[in-house]
Amino acid sequence: MVTFYAMSERDFMFDFFSYGIAIEDKATKYLIAYYKYLMYYLLYLTLPNLVTITYVVSCRICSECIQQLCLKGEKCSPKAFTTGVQIGLMKDRKYIMNLAEEIQTVFSRGSFFICMTNFMSCLSNLGQVIFYLTQNVAPTLIEILFISFNALTSMLSIFYYAGQIPTEMKRLTQVLKNKFEDRVLLGIDQDNSLVERLLIEENTFVMSGCDLIFFTRNGILTVLGTILTYGLLILSLDLKQKTE
Fold first, then answer.
1. At what angle do helices 47-75 and 83-132 cross, to 10 degrees?
2. What is the model's pTM?
3. C-alpha to C-alpha distance for 199 and 66, rounded to whole angstroms
4. Which residue in 23, 162, 190, 218 could disulfide with 207, CB within 3.0 to 4.6 Å?
5. CA dihedral 205, 207, 211, 215 (to 10 degrees)
6. Over the Cα atoms of the chain, what is R_g?
7. 48/109 Cα distance (integer angstroms)
8. What does the pLDDT look like over 9-59, one tens digit per residue?
9. Cα–Cα–Cα angle for 144, 119, 130, nearest 5°?
10. CA distance 2 to 30
11. CA angle, 66 as apex, 60 and 67 as ends, to 5°?
12. Euclidean distance between CA atoms 236 and 49, whole angstroms
């Protein structure tokens, strides 16, 4: 990016990096720009993305464990779905729930700050498009597209993979309900009604960021709609100022 700005005729970005202080020496000016870009991409892009990847992989592993439990329940015949099998499924589900709670405890704050940072980055990029695009078209567009793509990908991946856990939990509950219904239709009495109640009760765990942002699949459309709404609001304010 520094090379792109250096090839342009205007030095407004270098003035921005030096806080408006005029620097005549080009080597010093480029060194400051390289350093600030390095720190920016390291602190904002690299480290949060590493946390996001770790969080997403952890949620993916947890959801796959639930999927395996669903397959195990589906393959079991109604007659073979005895109390011993039910208790085994309950133990497996308890282990998965403990795993999800540990992931929530470790990544609650990190996921919250990452989502807020990426959301504000998207709004900042919209403002940059409006106010700075005329200064230097090509470098600004490249930078905005790269950062916006990274921010949206990181934020939406958190909502998608973390939101897969409650979806799979609902599916598991439905599979268990179907098994108990099949046993009733076959005239098989349930030996332990307490185990049945514990298995079929709604036990949905929703991942969240500091209990302020809840990660569900429906949240993806909410995030995109919010960004679009604020983007149109910023654009309308800019157009209103230009017409006055």
1. 150
2. 0.81
3. 14
4. 162
5. -120
6. 26
7. 12
8. 555 555 556 655 666 666 777 777 777 777 777 777 788 899 999 999 999
9. 40
10. 7
11. 85
12. 32
When mean pLDDT is compared over 15-19, 123-127, 213-217, the highest value belongs to 213-217
C-alpha 85/C-alpha 169 separation (Å) is 18
Q: At what angle do helices 193-200 and 164-185 cross, to 10 degrees?
A: 150
Is-contact 86 183, C-beta < 8 A?
no
Q: Closest by alpha carbon to 65, among 96, 106, 27, 42?
A: 96
Phi and psi torsions of 74, nearest 5°: -70, -35
Task: Say whether 213 sits in a helix, a strand or coil.
Answer: strand
Residue 131 pLDDT class (50, 70, 90 cuts): low
Placement of tokens 């991946």 in the chain: 157
Please give the Cα distance from 12 to 5 (Å, whole number): 9
Measured distance between the N- and C-terminal CA atoms of the chain, rounded to whole angstroms: 35
Cα 113–124–1 angle (5° rounding)? 100
From CA 229, how far away is CA 235, in angstroms rounded?
10
d(CA 178, CA 26): 72
Beta bridge partners, 213, equal 209
DSSP string, 30-44: HHHHHHHHHHHIIII
**Contact criterion met (CB below 8 Å) for 99 and 63:** no
Query: Residue 5 is encoded by which pair of tokens?
Result: 């700005």
With beta carbons less than 8 A apart as the criterion, state whether 53 and 39 touch. Answer: no
For residue 156, give Cα distances in angstroms to 32, 150, 159, 169.
33, 10, 5, 20
